Amino acid sequence: METVEGELKLHGMWASPFCTRVEIALKLKGVQYEYIQEDLNKKSDALLRYNPIHKKVPVLVHDGRPVVESLVILEYIDETWKEHRLMPKDPHRRARIRFWADYFDKKFAPATGGIIRQKDEEQEKAIKEFKEHLSTLEQGMKEEFPPGQPFFNGETLGLLDLVVCSTCRWFTVLEELAGTSLVNEETTPLIFSWIQSFMELQIAEDTLPQHEKLLAYALGLREKALNSSVYYSQQRNYNAKGGRAKKAIKEFKEKLNTLEKGMEEEFPPGQPFFNGETPGLLDLVVHSTCRWFTVLGELAGTSLVNEDTTPLIFSWIQSFMELQIAEDTLPQHEKLLAHALHLREKV
Predict the structure, then answer these.
(1) Residue 87 region, left (φ>0) first, then alpha (ψ -120 to 50), else beta?
(2) To the nearest whole percent, how much of the chain has pLDDT over 90?
(3) Of 57, 128, 154, 289, which sees the most CB atoms within 10 A?
(4) How many angstroms separate the Cα of 276 from the Cα of each of 180, 237, 249, 267, 310?
(5) CA 81 remoteness from chain centre
(6) What does the DSSP assignment read for 145-157?
C-alpha cells in the first residue's frame, strides 16, 4: 500500500462508470481511501460543498481539497501516486490517450442515454450512433495501439483501459435494452478482446457493479423517462420557435456567472490574468474566445461580458486585449461577425 499524506475520500455512486474508473485506479495504486456512497436524488451537503458547480460525482477529496471530473481525477491520482503508472512518458502518446478518453466520454454518454430513455425511432437512432462510435473507436485502437497486447496500455492497465473497461457491465445492460449485440468478436474484435482480458482480473470482479442490479437500475431510469410528461414537455418547449435561442442566452449567462464566482474564489485578486502576472492555460482557453463574446452579444441583442455582471472576466479580458499577441492572433470582429451571420442564416 502506498502512503497517503492526508485523508482521502471518494464521493461516488455505485452505478456510475465514471466513479468505477476512479475506484479501479485507486485500487491499482494500492491507495487506501474511504468510499462515500451518494444518493443523487438527495445529494449530501459535502458533495454540494466540494463540487458546487456541477454537483455530481465522482469527487476525490484529498486532505480536504476536492478534485472533480473523472478524467482529471485519474491524472491527479497518477501524478500523486507513482506506483503503476496509468499514462506513458511520451508526450504524444499521452495526448492521444487523452483524445480517445475524451472521445469516449463525449460520444458514448449521450448515445447511452438515448438507448435507455428513448423508444422506437429515437432509440434506433441512439443504437445506430452507439455502434458508429464503437466502430470509430475500434478503428482508432487498430491504428494507434500495439496489436497482440491484452490492454490498450500494453501488458498492464492504463488510463484508457479504465475509461473503456469500467463500462463493461453497462455494455451488456445496453444490449438487453437495445435488443441487439453492441460489442462482439465479429464487429469490434479489439474492444471485445480488451474487455475480456479486463474481466479476467480480480479487480474487475471486486469493483464492477453486478449485472442484475445494474439492469434493474437502468430499467428504473427507462420507466421514469418514458412515463415523464415533464420530459416530453421540456422537449416541446425546447423545440418551440425562439425557445432555443432564449434558453441558450440564459444558459450562457448562468455559466459566465458560475465562472466569475469560481475565479473570485480560486484565483489571486488584483492580478492581470488567471495565471497571475502572465497568461497561463486557463487564460488561453477563455481569452481565445474574446472576439466571439462580442459577436455573440450582437447576435443575442444583449451584453454577455461586462464590468457590472462579470467584473473579473471583463478585467482579465481587457488585460489580454492590451497584449500585442492578442492583436496579432485573434480574428477581426467584422470578419467573425460575417462568419457567424452566415452560420446563422444557414441554420
Answers:
(1) beta
(2) 75
(3) 57
(4) 54, 43, 30, 8, 18
(5) 23
(6) S-TT-SBTTBSS-
Contact 173, 214 (CB under 8 A): yes
State which H helix or E strand residue 167 sits in.
none
Query: Each residue of 324-339: pLDDT tens digit?
Result: 999 999 999 899 989 9
Residue type present at position 161? D
pLDDT of residue 229: 45
Buried b (16+ CB within 10 A) or exposed e, 48-76: eebbeeeebbbbbbbeeebbbbbbebbbb
pTM of the prediction? 0.86
DSSP state of 31: B
Q: How far from 336 is each of 127, 163, 296, 318, CA to CA, in Å? A: 37, 37, 10, 19
Percentage of the chain beyond pLDDT 70 is 94
